[in-house]
Amino acid sequence: MRKAYKFIGYLSIVFVMLAGITAGAGRTIDKLEFPPMNKIEMPEVDKVQLDNGIMLYILEDHELPIVRASVRLAAGDFLSPPDKVGLGDITGTVMRTGGTARMTGDEIDEALEAIGASVEVNIGATSGRAGMNILLEYADTGLEILADVLRTPRFDQDKIDLAKNQMRTEISSRNDDPFQVCVREFKKVIYGQESPYARHTEYSTVNGITREDMIDFHRKYISPENVMIAVWGDFKKEEMITKVKKYFEDWGKGAGLVPQLPEVKYEFKPGVYYAEKDNVTQSNVLIGHIGGLTGDPDFFALTVANNVLGGSFGSRMFNEVRSKKGLAYSTGGNFSSNISYPGIYYNYVITKLESTVEATEAVLHEIRRMQTDPPTEEELERAKSSYLNSFVFNFDSKGEIINRMMTYDYYDFPQDFLFTVKDKIEKVTAEDVVDVARRRFHPDEMKIVVVGKADQFDKPLSILGAVDTIDITIPSGEVEEEVVINEETLAKGMELLKLAADACGGVDNYMKVKAVSSESDVVLVLPQGEMAISASAISVLPDKSKEIMNTPMGEIITVTDGETGWMKQGPNVVDMTSEQIESSKKELFRNIMHLFQNLDNPEYQAVFVASEDFRGSQADIVKVMSADGAESFKLILDSETHMPIGKMFFGETMMGPGNLTQIISDYREISGIKVPFSVIIEADGKKSAEIKTKDLKINPEIPEGTFDKP
Amino acid sequence: MKQLRSAFFTLAIMALAMISSAAAFDFSEIEKQVVEYKLDNGLTIIMLPRHDAPVISFVTHVNAGCTDDPMGSMGMAHMFEHMAFKGTEEIGTTDIKKEKKWMAEEDRIFALIMEERTKGPLADSARLAALTEELAAATDSAEQYVVTNEFGQIVSREGGVGLNAGTSMDYTQYYLNYPSNKLELWMAMESDRFAHPVLRELFNEKNVVAEERRSRITSSPSGKLFWGEYIGLAFNAHPYGKCLIGEMSEIQNYNRPTMMKQFETYYVPRNIAVGIVGDVDPDEVIRLAEKYFGKIKDRPEPPPLMIDEEYPFGMRQATIRDNSQPMFITGYRIPSVRHPDFVALDALASYLGSGRTSALYKDLVKEKKSAVSVSAFTGFPGRKYPTLFSIFCIPSNDFSNTDNEEIILAEIEKVRNELIPEEELAKIKAQAKAAFINTLGSNSGMASQLVSYYFYKGDWRELFKEIDRVNALTAEDIKRVAEKYLDPDKRVVAYLEKPVEDENN
Fold first, then answer.
1. Torsional class of A443: left (φ above 0), alpha (ψ -120 to 50), beta (otherwise)
2. Is A115 in Cβ contact with B431 (below 8 Å)?
3. Model confidence at B363, in pLDDT bands (50, 70, 90)?
4. Shortest CB distance from B20 goes to which of A137, A313, A398?
5. ipTM of the complex
6. Considering only residues 51 to 110 of chain A, which have any Cβ-Cβ distance to chain B shorter than 8 Å?
């Protein structure tokens, strides 16, 4: 009995060991065999041309009582002039939100909401689209609004302002994600800084866009010769054609065809580009060159070759760079293509700073190996199936299919293209892969873009080639205005500052201030309404400060000592970025108390600008500047009392950089100096915040540990 | 001019809406294609074949949510949802035997920790510290066998998109879409994770959930208001009054033996339905479901929760003092989704406070400018059991909670005494219809609705009857439910107010 038991035990050990050896291959899911993909059925789409030339694509689909429309617009942001990048984009947005000849934007919102419908317009870099989704019985309402939005937009100014604010907000956060930074800069390296395929908005280009520009853009490019319309849903074809004709056929021709997309001129040449970004522990690296066209005869072999090399799980980069060398958490690549212009070819690796160069070299090694080592049968199989697996999601909605048809027709691209893909991908051989890699990959002429912190790299980047540095600082878009600087204006400026300091209690009293604490009520004016929060602050001069804001989302604490800083929201504590510290230094520069303590400091210069009216009071304007001219703000002093009643400067608003005005009042005397208890802040002429101080103490006791990081 | 145009528009909408009730679409064609099949172990499969594109949406609906969590371990349903992505005995590990050995070691140490912790203030802190260190070492040992996120990696390699899940008071749903030739892969992986859960990386994941609680409840004023005060006031006996994510101390107590016991009671085939919509052959689905899900052992249906709490005897209120934007939520007890009045209550919520054209929004936000936001809704915190009709309001700067509360109460008295305008009723019907039809158009939306209705209403066919019920509503129905349920004397209200000013300051 005992013997038998032991025997069984022994057997099971053998079994377990065997299972261990074949782990992976023994799993249920690894034994599964999948049937071939079901055939993709293409719906029969009819095409009708309207009298004004518009091509109408029409498809009956009776499953649900809905009507949808998609209008392809040939207009894209590529048509925007270089100093107004973003014009096409914002024109699309405001066509929908800014009202039409018959209705305001809000009325359109209400009308659509009442029937559970939607109409949207979006203009991208190379083309645009307007869409409609509506219940069958309201098809007329929907088509009418869609036609109005395309034909008679009226671009109400308040909606333009809102859209511009949204664009500025996007600009202000564009450096947050290092991978996004890397892709953006890589595109500029490949296509060129000014290329419509790579360029992007700046504060200056957005600020420069006017309502007239938008009206002009609309008039020139949104016209029958530049649109294609598709309508699909639960209707009888003939009836829908009549309806579409009713709303679109009397749309008179415009200014002609939209110009063709510009050509891409690319020269194969190596290059290494470095963009510094702090607050990162990893480098993001993109390695590649120009990609190809979708219609390229090499498209199929390139797709397979790319998947062998960098197509996610099981690819060579995944196995060698990620798994075996353990160099990266994320690595892969893409040979991207477009119908109308060449895509980009890139391989990426996200690796810890200390292995930046090693990981880049490992990727380059794998690219080279593609030109010599043909893929194994298994590699080839995985490469093909991973493409074909996700391929089907190209066809999972009628909208996608019909939109693609319009795009293909617009560029005279063969409609059956995608149906040839499956066969051609399957026919690609190991030899084809090596051949195409030799011809189309240029490992010795790669552009390498690195976003990270060079002082922590394993080796200098120059090992990879001569390094160009890219500055990703977001240009503020500030417009410098002329100020006359001479002995006279400088002297008068300083004199006015001294008068101001005297009026506020005198420099001697200011010099006694070592610390300040305050409690305030703050009202923030947000796009969705006003929000009241309370704030308290403690500062130890010159540059230590702690601010606590109580918001509906919780408490936000910000602490800085001028060189470093951190913020705490809920359980999360993050270090301030260098931009945030920079911004708190600027704030200190503009601090009046700090200014009055530094009137003898040669770092501060004051220039008299003008005497003029400020909010109903006669005022002297003094521009306060740092000696190097890098920092400046305008201090507005009451001509009679010499008290500061305002400040004007260029700085961060909630919607990105803009012109800020502070209106300062309600002075109260504390410890011999006069302190304003009311500050209203205006951003680009609109009230953005109001601070009412409830209590302020000079030289309070500072509790121990006030500035300690949790 | 602007006034005129608006008036014209309201008329136009009215006219359009009138047509809508006349022309009814026949949904029975879709309804007829739905196939329901119950496996021997009680697991239900509801399929809707739709061959437009070779893709399938899958939704696994487990009819267990926070209301089924055991006392002392609230939030465990949510924790289990997190664990379901950690893999199976075959996926996510390099050596399941060794990994399990270390997991058992974790469990042994954690039992000792719990034993010590229950002593409360008398606990031996040195012993606790030593045990905690031991636990961390065991966790490290277990995790050396873990293949991080392998489950998700396989899904994406094989062409799956939209891998996700959600836990509510009433249920837990798991979502995924695949190309249709991966039907068997989904069957194999999905059945495996619910047949043999391994609860991998439990002790680290508890920290993730604890962080989630901190950010969603503790450091969020509205989180505290909704989950901390409001539902707690509204329910004395029913678990609808508990916090979905559990108390912090409860999260700390989660352990494998309790979770497995809970799993074995509630994740039983009779309590699970899968919705499969897309390019499928029902016979093939049934064959594969028998093969994979059929292996799961039949277990008894979980015990029913039978607490029919009496309606409040009076008004209940709570106030949080917090230095943040004031806001409040008020509510009235209403029956569960199974009650015939629920449809009218939903319509009433839509009339009062859904979207930018609703009655309260127009009155408070647009006209009086007394609030920046106001909304009315049913179904919070759940709808399987008697629940709440809620109105949530954020006052604007120069107005208080009570200013707005007065206006809202007046508006509610109005709907209890007067009929709502016909064009408003027409709007509600049009919106409900559009929302319903758009759901029908989406494979994943449809899969989710079919299984939800199966458990909520006992039959997926109820989904198709819903729109008829909305269309049958009259203004009288809405007035009647407002009168019946929105009783001002049996109301619950939770305020978030600024701290009281200290006079001496």
1. alpha
2. yes
3. very high
4. A137
5. 0.73
6. 63-66, 102-104, 107, 109-110
Domain that residue A582 falls in: 487-698
* Residues A491 and A463 reside in one and the same domain: no
At B19, the pLDDT band (50, 70, 90 cuts) reads very low
Q: Hey, is A195 helix, strand or coil?
A: coil
pLDDT for res A402: 93
Which residue's entry shows tokens 């609808």? B240
Rounded Cα distance between B402 and B395, Å, is 9
Sheet holding B272-278, edge to edge: B35-38, B44-49, B272-278, B55-62, B172-179, B161-167
CATH of B310-497, one of 3.30.70.2750, 3.20.20.10, 3.30.830.10, 3.60.15.10: 3.30.830.10
CB atoms A110 and B9 under 8 Å: yes
Residue carrying the six token digits 């500052």: A497
- Residue numbers of chain A with a pLDDT score lower than 50: 1-25
Q: Would you kindly state where each structural domain of chain B is located, as residue ranges?
A: 33-93+146-295, 310-497
Cα–Cα distance measured from residue B242 to residue B67, given in angstroms and rounded to the nearest whole number: 8
Whether B23 has a pLDDT exceeding 60, the answer reads no
Tell whether A472 is within 8 A of chain B (Cβ): no
| CATH number, domain B33-93+146-295, options 3.40.50.300, 3.40.50.150, 3.30.830.10, 3.40.50.170 | 3.30.830.10
Could you count the other beta carbons within 10 Å of the beta carbon of residue B330? Answer: 26
- The SS3 of residue A127 is coil
Q: What is the pLDDT of residue A312?
A: 61
Q: What is the CATH number of the domain that holds A151?
A: 3.30.830.10
For residue A602 the two structure tokens come to 């040669």
Residue showing tokens 């101001």: A500
A16, A114, A396 member nearest B430 (Cβ):
A114
The confidence score (pLDDT) of residue A480 equals 63
Contact A148, A121 (CB under 8 A): no
When divided into structural domains, chain A yields a total of: 3
Judge whether residue B133 has pLDDT over 80.
Answer: yes
Residues A384 and A504 in one domain: no
Residue A2, amino acid: R
**Whether A141 and A166 share a structural domain:** yes
Q: Do A135 and B430 touch (CB under 8 A)?
A: yes
Question: What tokens were used for A312?
Answer: 């996610």
Residue of B2, B185, B221 with shortest CB distance to A554: B221
Within 358-387 of A, beta carbons closer than 8 Å to B belong to 386
Looking up tokens 């909704």 gives B226
Q: How many helices (H) and strands (E) does chain B have?
A: 20, 11
What's the gap in Å between the CA of A431 and the closest CA on chain B?
A: 25
